[in-house]
Design a protein that fits this description.
The chain is of the alpha+beta class. It folds into two domains: 41 residues; 153 residues, no CATH class. 35% of the residues lie in helices and 31% in strands. Strands 3, 4, 6, 8, 9 and 10 form a six-stranded antiparallel beta sheet that branches. Helix 2 packs across helix 3. The protein is elongated. The relative contact order is 0.17.
Length: 204
């Protein structure tokens, strides 16, 4: 009889252990589901776009914009641009290479570009996005380049038109993170997005 009671006690104890483990599993699983739900509810999605006309102001204007079309804020760690596969580290040097008159010697191009800025024939406006939080549905005008006047800024207009052609060959890479430190690298115009452990800016 004692052996019979002992077996019942062991069976009850075993059931208690199984129920406890099942409850623990359910609690852990629910916690994981809640965590993923919270992460999804604040997931950012960075987009990079560009154009040459502002319909709101009815003006010709080259513009590069960074937008967050996701549900949560995004911390942009870097935005890298490449032209013909080369990393753009200086806007003036890039424009000197892509967009100055063909007759200029290689060592004259940068001085020519600097002179156009200095003499007011054209101007660029920058709004930094590096290490910046972009709210959901917010758009940042990263670079704005107004079209120079044909009568008074003819040299600047020629460069503007050359930049307008060259911008179609520029590729972009952005790395950004959510408030939960989930990070992604996105490329444009290919529209790819890959998760990464952390953002490491590209080097030349």
């Amino acid at each position: 009889m004692k052996l019979h009671y002992r077996s019942i006690e062991l069976l009850v104890a075993g059931c208690v252990v199984i129920i406890s483990l099942a409850s623990l599993f359910v609690a852990v699983y629910q916690g994981m589901v809640m965590q993923r739900t919270m992460e999804a509810s604040v997931m950012p999605l960075i987009q990079v776009g560009h154009g040459n006309y502002d319909a709101a102001t009815d003006e010709w204007q080259i513009k590069i914009e960074v937008s967050n079309t996701g549900l949560g804020p995004a911390q942009v760690h870097y935005l890298a641009m490449r032209w013909n596969g080369e990393l753009i580290t200086d806007t003036s040097e890039f424009m000197a290479q892509c967009c100055t008159p063909d007759g200029l010697a290689e060592d004259e191009r940068l001085d020519y570009m600097i002179s156009l800025f200095r003499e007011g024939e054209m101007a660029l406006i920058f709004d930094d996005v590096q290490m910046r939080f972009i709210a959901p549905q917010e758009t940042v005008e990263f670079i704005t380049f107004d079209q120079p006047d044909a009568a008074t800024q003819a040299r600047g207009l020629a460069v503007w038109r050359a930049v307008d052609r060259a911008r179609r060959d520029i590729t972009y890479e952005a790395c950004y993170c959510s408030v939960f430190d989930e990070c992604w690298v996105s490329t444009f115009p290919r529209q790819t997005r890959q998760p990464v452990r952390q953002c490491v800016a590209p080097r030349e």
